[in-house]
What we know:
By secondary structure, the protein is mainly alpha-helical. The protein is 75% helix and 0% strand. It contains 20 helices and no strands. It has helices at residues 11-17, 30-40, 44-56, 61-74, 78-90, 98-113, 117-130, 135-147, 151-164, 169-181, 185-196, 204-214, 217-231, 234-246, 250-263, 268-280, 284-296, 300-316, 320-333, 338-348. α19 (320-333) runs antiparallel to α20. The longest helix is centred in the C-terminal third of the chain and has 17 residues, at 300-316. It is globular, with a radius of gyration of 21 Å.
Amino acid sequence: xxxxxxxxxxxxxxxxxxxAFLTGCGSGTAHIKEADSLIENGSYAESLESLEAxxxxxxxxxxxxxxxxxxxxxxxxxxxxVDDFTAALSENKGxxxxxxxxxxxxxxxxxxxxxxxxxxxxxxxxxxALFPKESDAYYLRGRTFIAMQDVDxxxxxxxxxVKLSPDDPDLYIQIYEALSDAGLSSDGERYLKSAMELxxxxxSFQKGxxxxxMGDYDRAKENLENAxxxxxxxQATLYLxxxxxxMGDMNYAASLYRSYLENDPSNxxxxxxxxLCLMALSDYSAALEAFNRGIELEDPAMDxxxxxxxxxxxxxxGDYDRAKxxxxxxxxxxxxxxxxxxxNGFLETR
Length: 350
């Protein structure tokens, strides 16, 4: 009952967060800067207090709505986030700026997490209408088309994305994984082949990830081990562990995840994968402990997957009452998860 993390997360939008949007916005942004620093550190509730102070001090209301929306995303309050991002966009009285695109990306992610897939699709379409060379927008809109079971339009958007960013191997891999998650791995294979043609531009980690997707686990292991040793790529350990899982060596995979977490206990994705590995080993108590630790890290990008897997662990442990309670909370935050709706139907019979 474990499941992969929801790929339509904060990752793309986060790249815009680093940009210095406070520059050129005039003086009087001290509280907003403080709030943004707190957001970067994952202190979302505290950042809202700083933003309340910013509003009382008469600081830039557009930036306040934007930062408040990001904090609300971190707290999984996607309805409030949609309201704040919409308010931030409405504050633009002049020409469309880069910040409008940044806010729109956040808005689309919040809409998707709220279950409004069509709304997210429309938001990405609005970005594309204004900035037709936004590769990320095509890729993300393609993911919403998949969620709407419109495969033809999804593949059309994916093709446009790679046409705009033909030298980005990670994009090809993400598209393959999106199609594979939808049961369309054969449609995604051509993207892997295109990525392999970028051979001279590929890092060991990228090669290892590609070989993993292609099911060539021996070559994946070789390249990923090199990436762990020489490239210090954090995700290399995650994929190396998944490679050993695919090769049937769950115990060694778990040991890799544990070793990684000894050095970086704040990585929610590796914590989640450790839990899934322990589930496969039927060590449900240890798996539950891993999922609980992951949830405590408050990583918005991993929250959905960790909470779903936590529920599954309680089910395997026979604690159906606890699983039912957590499922109700989960569905309030992620109503679009059809798998969870079906699982809830099962729980209702227990």
